[in-house]
Specification:
This protein has eleven helices and twelve strands. It is α/β, with parallel strands linked by helices and 372 residues long. It has one domain: NADP-dependent oxidoreductase domain (TIM Barrel). The strands form three sheets. Strands 1-2-3-6-7-8-9-10 form an eight-stranded parallel barrel, surrounded by five helices. Strands 4-5 form a two-stranded antiparallel sheet. Strands 11-12 form a two-stranded antiparallel ribbon. The N and C termini lie far apart (44 Å).
Length: 372
Amino acid sequence: MTTFRTTTPLSRLLPPLVLGGAGFSYQIISNPSSTQALQVLKRAFELGLRAIDTSSYYHPSEVLLGEALSHPDIASNYTRDQYILMTKVGRITATQFDYSPAWVRQSVTRSLERLRTCYLDVVFCHDVEFVPEDEVLEAVGALFEMVGQGHIKYVGISGYRIDVLAHIARRVQEIYSRPLDIVQNWAQLTLQNDRLAREGLEAFREAGVSCVCSSSPLAIGLLRSNGVPVGDLGDFHPAPQGLRRAAKEAADYVAARGESLATLALRYSIIRAQSISDADFRVTTIMGITSIAELEDNLGTARQVLPMSDEPRWLWTADAGPSVELSQRKFEEDEMLFKSVQKILGPWKDYSFPSPGNGWDVARKRPAETRL
């Protein structure tokens, strides 16, 4: 078994864009299928998008991705070192968590089997604010051990609460005398909520983290014209009705000016990520994608603000680096629309979703009303 020596910071390897695997789950769509996953993945790889983020919680995403990656259309054209696989441990269902070292090891082993791979590039502890901090730290330690065993290359944590993520990142550095490699935060580097840039990134830098993933640039589908996505698990979106109405008003306003709110919001998130990134600290954007049409639309948007070349390699490596000049020029073109949307959002600008909320008992890792 190979022992990974993660001397190369992840900021030098992770590309500016990542394909989100939640688009192959029941949370997002009603009928995730192996055909859908293969079609999207094959086209994504052709276009140069070869970094994938998923979770064991996004059922059946890992299974579908594993089937697609092992299909001859992909396996015969791309070697394992030509794409990056990231997944998560700890969250099992909407109300069930297990951060014990035994479960972490079991979950990683299961992910390796589902994804049909001999190693994972990144494993995150999933939604860390839902469990006691000491359990997260113990789980991180188990993942560090698995790096030494050759199962994982890099270790990170994910969640919504920026203060919790920053505090855990500092404690990891203190306890293990090495930093986390990466932190993932969702829906807080967006046109609606930009708190990650102002409240989190410097704290992560200080804790030695070299890479941050900004996921849900559309705030789980809030920032689009057709409302939040509803899959087989129902409407799980945390946005209150007032915010939903404001987002719909903003979408109508942007549409009346010949633009799509989803496209505008994605440009904003990518531009912000690029403006913050440098050679030693990368902020990368995870895009939730469910179809080839959505994939091509999103990459078309990305090409407006990322450096381009005829070789699709620019999308799946960090070689190109941030293009501040290109991003700044596009930001200036969009600035009036950005400000107009944020004005329409009004008091909902920078509103943060409660996570985990008053209905959750962190100490007991279950809904607060549950009694045994």
